[in-house]
């Protein structure tokens, strides 16, 4: 595995981790939608910006698994105790889908560039 890492560098690893986070967030948001009418359910989310800020602030040395980055929302609570807002979940799903598409495009371009180099620019 170290050989592959040395060939592709940290760029591919970062893309993979970003895609993993997008996939994890998609699952959390889908779970929120499934529980939109469950009384007392607290929505869960994975805030990309918060994770990025924490990593840049120096907590990258003690990198936590994805489950530890999941945040429960303590925001607006409905009368039944649930914090799931249907419009917010759908908007977050669309945002996550766009982010994932951008990441897959970046990954495809990365491998296309490698293939171009291997072919000698032909």
Quick rundown:
It contains three helices and two strands, in the order H-E-H-E-H. The chain has 122 residues and is mainly alpha-helical. The chain has one domain (2-118).
Describe this structure in words.
This protein has helices spanning about 1-35, 50-55, 85-120, and strands at about 45, 70. The protein has one domain. It has 3 helices and 2 strands, in the order H-E-H-E-H. With about 120 residues, it is mainly α. The chain is elongated, with a radius of gyration of 18 Å. Residues about 60-65 have low confidence and may be disordered. The two termini are about 30 Å apart. The chain has a two-stranded antiparallel ribbon with strand order 1-2.
Label this structure with key terms.
single chain, 122 residues, mainly alpha, two-stranded antiparallel ribbon, 61% helix, 3% strand
User: How many separate domains?
Assistant: 1
Describe the global form.
Answer: elongated
Order of helices and strands: HEHEH
On the 0 to 100 scale, the average pLDDT is: 80
Arrangement of strands in the largest sheet:
1-2
Radius of gyration in whole Å, from Cα?
18 Å
Quaternary status? single chain
Beta-strand proportion = under 5%
Number of strands: 2
Task: Compute the number of helices.
Answer: 3
Distance, first to last CA: 29 Å
């Amino acid at each position: 595995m170290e050989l592959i890492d040395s060939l592709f560098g940290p760029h591919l690893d970062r893309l993979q981790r970003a895609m993993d986070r997008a996939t994890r967030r998609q699952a959390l948001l889908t779970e929120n939608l499934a529980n939109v009418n469950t009384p007392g359910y607290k929505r869960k989310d994975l805030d990309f910006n918060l994770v990025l800020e924490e990593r840049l602030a120096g907590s990258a040395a003690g990198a936590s698994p994805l489950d530890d980055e999941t945040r429960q929302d303590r925001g607006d609570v409905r009368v039944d105790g649930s914090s799931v807002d249907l419009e917010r979940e759908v908007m977050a799903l669309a945002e996550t889908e766009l982010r994932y598409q951008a990441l897959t495009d970046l990954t495809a371009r990365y491998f296309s560039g490698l293939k171009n180099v291997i072919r000698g620019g032909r």
